Amino acid sequence: xxxxxxxxxxxxxxxxxxxxxxxxxxxxxxxxxxxxxxxxxxxxxxxxxxxxxxxxxxxxxxxxxxxxxxxxxxxxxxxxxxxxxxxxxxxxxxxx
Length: 96
Hints:
Oligomer: single chain
Number of strands: 0
């Protein structure tokens, strides 16, 4: 399954969310367990995140996937975040 990501919309939203939390790229990278260069590449549209990382990002920022990808202007924060555990089949599909 492929997720259609507009790198420009995603980059704008990611930077906006990061700055609204007053986080540097390095601080966000540490929180997500990725390198600072990864955040820089996402924000400069050189790369897009994996589906697993998108789940981490929406959980971290408490926003919807549609908002993060720029498909919606409604942030709609999660009022009670619940961890999402991937099934074995979902893990298998994401690794393809």
